[in-house]
Amino acid sequence: MAALVIPNLVMDGIQLRRQGPVGDTPRRLAPLLVFTMLGTVIGTKLLVMLSGRAATLILGAFVVAFVLFDLAHFSPRVDRRRERALAAPVGLLAGIMGGITNAPGTLLAVYFIALGMDKREFVRAVAFSFLIVKAVQLATLAWYGLLSGAIVLGSLGLTVAALAGFGLGVRVQDRLDQRTFNRAVLIFLALLGVWLVARVL
C-alpha cells in the first residue's frame, strides 16, 4: 500500500494538469474532502492494526464489489441540494476504505456520477480528490512509520514504471472505443479481485 502512494500522487497530478483550470472544484469538494482526509487517517491506522491477510481480503472484496456494481449498472442519482448533507458520511467512508485498501476512488467515483457531473468535471473532481487524499495518506503513512527508505526507493521506481504505463495507456485509450475499454478494465479488475480473495482463502 505504502509503495503505491507516490506513483498515485504523480499520476493524479498529471491527470489534473491535463484537465486545465480547476475552476470551483476545490470549493465545491471542500466539505467532502475534509471528511475524506479524516477517514484516511482512521483507515491508515486500521491498516497498521490489520494483518496482511485481512488487508488483502478487504482489498480483493472491495474490487470484486466494484465490478459487480458496474455489471449491475448500479447508478444512483443524488439531488444537488443533498450534496452537503452527504459530504460527511460519503467522505468518511471513502477515506476509511482508501486508508485500508489504497482505493478511495470507487465510492467517490460512484458519488460523483450520482451527482450528474459531466465527463470533464468528473475527471477533474476525481483527480483533485485523489491528489488531496493521497497527500494526506503519504503523511499518515510516514507518521505511523510505514515509509522506510527501501519503500520510498521502490516507490520511486514504481513511479517511473507508472509514467511509462500512463503514456501507453493514453495511446491505447485513443485507439479503443469507450465500450471496449470499459469492458477490458472490468475483466482485469474482476480477475485481480478474485485472485486477491483466493490468495487469502
Description:
This protein has 201 residues and is mainly alpha-helical. Helices cover 83% and strands 0% of the residues. It has eight helices and no strands. The chain has helices at 2-18, 25-49, 52-71, 83-101, 105-114, 119-143, 149-175, 178-200. Helix 1 packs antiparallel against helix 6 and helix 4 (83-101) runs antiparallel to helix 5 (105-114). It is globular.
Q: How many DSSP-defined strands?
A: 0
What is the residue-mean pLDDT, rounded to a whole number?
81
Helix percentage range: over 70%
Percent in strands: under 5%
Structural class per helix/strand content? mainly alpha
Distance between the termini: 20 Å
For the report, how would you describe the main beta sheet?
none
Order of helices and strands: HHHHHHHH
Label the overall shape: globular
Number of helices: 8
The low-pLDDT segments are none
Rg computed from alpha carbons, rounded to a whole number of angstroms? 17 Å
Give a brief outline of the structure.
This protein has 201 residues and is an all-alpha fold. It has eight helices and no strands.
Task: Break the fold down into its secondary structure elements and pairings.
Elements: H1 2-18, H2 25-49, H3 52-71, H4 83-101, H5 105-114, H6 119-143, H7 149-175, H8 178-200
Helix pairs in contact: 1-6, 1-7, 2-4, 2-6, 3-8, 4-5, 5-6
